[in-house]
Each structure stands twice: as structure tokens, then as C-alpha cells.
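Propose amino acids for all 338 sites.
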């Protein structure tokens, strides 16, 4: 039984984290819910009991075994090392530590063994990257992935509670025939739009989100030779990210072979019956934990290339589910480290 703290408990990911600890019956002896002073005093119901959200503090981490943290990067950078120094293992959802060579970056379907290398912090990868690597892993094991060209269709909830609120406010205003409120979280209105920008632009012309997909994929798969060519787009969908993926492999891989590999792969569900108009959909993936793949086709010319469509709930497998699965991997280790 573990003493657990959920940090960022009032946020979009934190809320799912709480539900997942309940659903997966995580062994908990004590639990507390922390956020910024803005949320202090709010209540959270966990396993039928009401808990008060408290402001984050050094004292709060005393005696805590596992911290599930989902705060902005700057907050994690400050507080996750404090929690780790107090003796906890922190599963951190932010981008603060993902590329730190001393911090494992883990997707349990891909590199669960890296959990054991933790020195107090384990990073949870970027949401678009998690669903992509879960789908790529069985193909990589069978035919070695050389290059991935991916375009994402990322939901508003990927930008947290403020992203969800902005999408809903703009959609409601349109429904009432009112002017669309000015954007604040996104650079342009998200309603009735597709924004080919997620996070800031870098000097190389890619965005930070796109470079996360490049660098995190290599670190999780343990293969720096994998080429990732991403274009990340925010779309007017509330929940679940969709991705169009072209993958090139070292040896030819037929669509049938890929389907057989995915049917055996943990965390992957195949939805691929074009005759019945069945393929993965964002609305169907919402609230589910799997990564859904479909629309699988061989490239028209290149026998070493496959195309497919990949969908997953960004707040669940893209964040909270993956974090709780990492915590479950911790339970399998020596009690001293968990
Ligand atoms: N949304 C996604 O799909 C997704 C996926 C993967 C990873 N992530 C990452 O997960 C993290 C959280 O994302 P989110 O979408 O849940 O964002 P969110 O809805 O904005 O929630 C942020 C949480 O952090 C807390 N927080 C903010 N400032 C704080 C401070 N100074 N001290 C303590 N707590 C503070 C907030 O508390 P208050 O309510 O009190 O402000 C809230 O609980 C981010 O790093 C994000 O990049 C998000």
C-alpha cells in the first residue's frame, strides 16, 4: 500500500489521474491532492470520500512514496526535485525532465525496463508521442522503423482546462449567433479552424511540440537513428488526438502483417473495416485507454512503407493512464525503490 500525492489535482490531467487511481484500484494507504493556492479549499471525491485540495508545499511530501504530478513545466522544474529529495518517486507529466539523460522517459508498452533506472523522477512523454510509439513499437520489433512522417490533429484539451474552456466558449458563442470571443490560450480562434502551430516556433522552423515528437520517440524507442518528420496541428475537437502516419521500415511489411502484429500488441486496438465504414474516431476513443489504429494501407510504390490512422484519448493514454501505468511498474520493483 502506498502513500500517494496527486499534484495538479485540479487540472485536466489531474482529474483523469484521480479517476484512474480509482478505476485501476491502485493500492493506496493515504492520498492527498495538491495544486496552486488558487485551488486550495476546493474538494475532490476519491473512493467515496471528500478531500480538500491543498496548496503545494515541501511539508506535504513528507512520507509520500509516489507523486503523480501534472503541472506546467516551470512548476514541475521547481517542485518535482523537492518531492524526490523528500524520498518520493515522482511521475512527472510535464516536459521539464523528459530529455534529461538521468530521467527515464517511459511508455510501459515500449520501455517498462527503464522505470528501474529512476533516481527519483520518471518523465511521462508528450501525448502525441505516446500514442505514436505504442503503435510503432510492434512494427519496429518486426521490421525496424527507419522513418516516420506524421501529421497530428490534436484536440483542444491538449492545452489543458483553459484550452477546453476556450473551445467551448467559442463554440457556444457561434451557436448563439454571437461574435466569437478573442483567443487567449491559442494564437487564433480554435472554433471552425485548424491551427498548424502547437507551442512556440524554434529557429529550425519546427515547433517545440514537433521537436518533442522527434526527440522523445528516439529516447523511448532507444534508437537515435529513427527519423521523425512531424507537423502538429490543433483542431476543433474537445478530446482525443488523431494522427496520420506514414512509416518506412528496413524490410517490406504488408498491411496484413502489420494488422497481425497490432492485434497481438499490448495497448493497441485495431479498428479497420472500411466496408463497414469502421476506423478509429476521436469521439469513440474519448474515455478509453487504448491506442486505436486503422485505415492501414501499403504505400502505392514503396513496399517498405505503410500508412495508417492512429487515435487515442490524450488525457488518458496520452497522460494520466500512462502515468498510472508507470506507477504500477514501480510497484513491481523492489519495495525500497517503489
Ligand atoms: N492536456 C494534455 O493532453 C497533456 C498531455 C500530456 C502531458 N500534459 C502535461 O501535463 C501538465 C498538466 O497539463 P493539464 O492539461 O492538466 O493542464 P491544466 O488543466 O492547466 O492543469 C494544470 C494543473 O497545474 C496546477 N498548477 C499550476 N500552477 C501551479 C503552481 N504554481 N503550483 C502548484 N500547482 C500548480 C493547476 O492548479 P490550479 O488549478 O490551482 O491553477 C492545475 O491543477 C502540463 O505540463 C502538460 O504539458 C498534458
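Proposal:
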Amino acid at each position: 500500500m502506498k502513500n500517494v500525492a496527486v499534484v495538479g489535482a485540479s487540472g485536466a490531467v489531474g482529474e483523469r489521474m484521480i479517476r484512474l487511481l480509482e478505476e485501476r484500484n491502485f493500492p493506496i494507504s493515504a492520498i492527498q491532492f495538491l495544486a496552486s493556492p488558487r485551488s486550495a479549499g476546493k474538494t475532490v471525491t476519491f473512493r467515496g470520500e471528500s478531500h480538500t485540495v491543498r496548496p503545494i508545499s515541501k511539508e506535504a511530501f513528507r512520507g509520500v512514496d509516489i507523486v503523480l504530478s501534472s503541472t506546467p513545466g516551470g512548476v514541475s522544474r521547481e517542485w518535482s526535485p523537492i518531492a524526490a529529495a523528500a524520498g518520493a518517486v515522482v511521475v512527472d507529466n510535464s516536459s521539464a525532465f523528459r530529455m534529461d539523460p538521468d530521467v527515464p522517459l517511459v511508455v510501459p508498452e515500449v520501455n517498462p525496463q527503464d522505470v528501474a533506472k529512476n533516481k527519483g523522477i520518471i518523465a511521462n512523454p508528450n501525448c502525441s508521442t505516446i500514442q505514436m510509439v505504442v503503435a510503432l513499437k510492434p512494427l519496429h520489433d518486426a521490421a525496424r522503423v527507419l522513418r516516420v512522417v506524421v501529421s497530428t490533429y490534436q484536440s483542444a484539451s491538449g492545452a489543458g482546462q483553459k484550452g477546453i474552456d476556450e473551445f467551448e466558449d467559442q463554440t457556444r458563442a457561434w451557436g448563439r449567433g454571437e461574435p466569437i470571443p478573442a483567443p487567449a490560450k491559442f494564437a487564433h480562434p480554435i472554433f471552425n479552424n485548424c491551427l498548424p502551430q502547437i507551442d512556440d516556433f524554434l529557429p529550425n522552423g519546427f515547433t517545440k511540440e514537433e521537436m518533442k515528437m522527434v526527440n522523445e520517440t528516439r529516447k523511448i524507442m532507444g534508437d537515435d537513428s529513427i527519423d521523425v518528420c512531424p507537423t502538429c496541428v490543433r483542431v476543433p475537437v474537445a478530446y482525443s488526438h488523431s494522427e496520420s502516419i506514414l512509416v518506412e521500415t528496413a524490410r517490406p511489411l504488408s498491411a496484413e502483417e502489420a494488422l497481425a502484429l497490432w492485434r497481438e500488441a499490448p495497448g493497441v486496438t485495431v479498428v479497420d473495416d472500411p466496408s463497414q465504414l469502421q476506423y478509429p474516431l476521436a469521439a469513440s476513443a474519448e474515455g478509453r485507454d487504448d491506442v486505436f489504429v486503422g485505415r492501414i494501407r501499403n504505400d502505392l510504390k514503396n513496399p517498405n512503407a505503410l500508412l495508417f490512422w492512429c487515435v487515442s484519448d490524450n488525457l488518458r493514454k496520452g497522460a494520466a493512464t500512462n502515468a498510472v501505468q508507470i506507477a504500477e511498474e514501480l510497484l513491481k520493483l523492489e519495495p525500497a525503490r517503489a
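The chain has two domains: 2-125+319-332, 129-314. DSSP finds eight helices and 14 strands in the chain.
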